[in-house]
Design a protein that fits this description.
Radius of gyration: 31 Å
Number of domains: 2
Number of helices: 14
Strand order of the largest sheet: 1-2
Distance between the termini: 92 Å
CATH class of the largest domain: Mainly Alpha
CATH superfamily of the largest domain: MetI-like
Largest sheet: 2 strands, antiparallel
CATH architecture of the largest domain: Orthogonal Bundle
Order of helices and strands: HEEHHHHHHHHHHHHH
Shape: globular
Length: 338
């Protein structure tokens, strides 16, 4: 009797231990399953608040008229009025034209210089290539604000180094008969002339971003099979032929990537023209970009609804241009290296 009564509590204790260990194992498994999500939660929360909510709220705002200073009570539904007003506004089209002009001028020049220069540097040896790549890439990693402020001084009409260089060129011995006419134009007011402000901004863009594309194209050229290059050399192909028939087709996906970044970056261009024009957009808004106009409408005129509508129109423009570009490169064989 006593032994049977003693064994019963022991079996109950062992059962409790097994139950507790089973619960611990189940909790440990749950921890292993949900731990990664716990680490992701801060990012997910920030993404939902600043991306998803911001995305949805901007779409909601685009159908309303709202001055944030007056509070949420001042929000008034206006339907598609903000969109129609944007499509009828002269400054919207002027800023869009300026943006496209700057994107084409700086973007095309960046790639036209970066592609052949990348092939040239690859063929000149690794040491020289590394030095030149670092030198050209340095402007890209330099602060845009700092670079823009430097160019403001360089473009100065009276003390700017660019005007001084042009004067020196016009008065150089033996070159006066070619460049002497530059003296009649001095001083050039790069940031105050409606005809010069866009080339001034485009040159800054070219100087800052060409090195970035150069690195991309060098990386692409280095993936070309050495056997292909050697076979072309044995067939008697010269430098130009190897570049045109081997390197350029091989770089097609890299060009697609670079051009896509250029298009998106050009349509979002803000810091450089804002600083070079001192936030005004230049004489007659000749340097006003679409992003600057969005900023002006939102934070100077405090019309968040109109600014949101224009931002969605800009989004649709970027999506359409990217889709057309993708179709164009797709027909040409985006992934083809032959």
């Amino acid at each position: 009797m006593s032994s049977s009564h003693a064994s019963a509590p022991l079996s109950e204790v062992e059962g409790d231990k097994k139950a507790r260990s089973a619960r611990k194992r189940s909790f440990a498994k749950l921890g292993q399953v949900f731990a990664p999500y716990g680490f992701l939660m801060p990012f997910i929360i920030l993404f939902l608040v600043f991306q998803v909510f911001g995305f949805a709220f901007s779409l909601y705002l685009s159908f309303h008229q709202w001055n944030p200073v007056a509070g949420l009570d001042s929000m008034r539904f206006v339907g598609i009025e903000n969109y129609t007003f944007s499509l009828e506004d002269e400054d919207f089209y002027r800023s869009l034209y300026n943006t496209i002009w700057l994107g084409l001028a700086s973007g095309i020049s960046q790639h036209l210089v970066a592609i052949p220069m990348a092939y040239l540097l690859v063929n000149l040896g690794s040491k020289f290539r590394h030095f030149m790549t670092s030198a050209f890439f340095l402007p890209f990693i330099t602060s845009t604000v700092a670079v823009s402020l430097i160019f403001v001084n360089m473009y100065s009409a009276n003390v700017g180094i660019i005007n001084k260089a042009l004067v020196a060129l016009a008065n150089a011995p033996g070159l006066g008969y070619i460049f002497g006419w530059l003296n009649d134009l001095m001083p050039l007011r790069w940031l105050e002339d409606r005809l010069l402000i866009k080339p001034a901004i485009a040159f800054l863009q070219f100087w800052k971003y060409t090195g970035f594309h150069l690195v991309i194209y060098i990386s692409g050229i280095l993936t070309i099979s050495k056997e292909v290059e050697e076979a072309a050399l044995l067939d008697g192909a010269n430098f130009r032929q190897r570049f045109w028939y081997i390197a350029l087709p091989h770089l097609r996906p890299f060009i697609f990537f670079g051009v896509t970044l250029t298009i998106i970056g050009s349509l979002q261009m803000f810091e450089e023209p804002f600083i070079l024009t001192n936030g005004t957009g230049g004489i007659g808004n000749s340097g006003l970009t679409i992003s600057m106009f969005l900023y002006k409408v939102a934070w100077e005129w405090l019309d968040m609804g109109w600014a949101s509508a224009m931002s969605w129109l800009l989004f649709l423009i970027i999506a359409a241009v990217t889709a057309v570009q993708f179709l164009f490169f797709g027909r040409k064989g985006l992934g083809s290296h032959s």
